[in-house]
Design goal:
By secondary structure, the protein is an alpha/beta fold. 27% of the residues lie in helices and 22% in strands. The chain contains 4 helices and 5 strands. Strands 1-3-2-4-5 form a 5-stranded mixed β-sheet. A hairpin with a 2-residue loop joins strand 4 (98-103) and strand 5 (106-112).
């Protein structure tokens, strides 16, 4: 049988939708009121790594949305490099995943653990509040 792509080409690469928070300036941009997308941020320390176990589930959610680039973004922030929290509130390192959800610069959720069902419900509820994002 013949495949849909020939053997001389690689299959098409999936669009990268899980992006790093580059630095403090990028973090301020992500959490500013001008960011009109629902933003899920996976917080991690480099010695534990980010929670990539849910990547495929989040990719599936992303693909179900109409104009997903205008409605949602997934980021990951290395807490040893990006000052997400004031120094006094910096969380102690833990292997337990932690996610923040933002909308319009406001932190809407702080979720401890890799609870996809909870995050999906929260994300979709916030996406519903966006209305038409042309």
């Amino acid at each position: 049988t013949q495949s849909t792509w020939d053997n001389n080409r690689m299959p098409p690469k999936l669009k990268e939708i899980f992006l790093p928070v580059r630095d403090e300036e990028h973090w301020k941009e992500v959490t500013s009121h001008s960011n009109r997308r629902v933003t899920l941020v996976d917080l991690f320390y480099p010695w534990f790594g980010r929670c990539d176990a849910l990547d495929e589930a989040f990719r599936g959610l992303y693909m179900t949305l109409e104009d997903p680039d205008k409605k949602i973004q997934y980021l990951h922030a290395d807490l040893s490099k990006v000052p997400v929290f004031p120094e006094a509130e910096q969380p102690k390192p833990t292997a337990k995943p932690r996610f923040l959800i933002y909308l319009n610069g406001e932190k809407k959720e702080d979720i401890s653990g890799a609870n996809y069902s909870l995050m999906k419900d929260k994300i979709l509820a916030l996406v519903d509040t966006l209305g038409d994002v042309s």
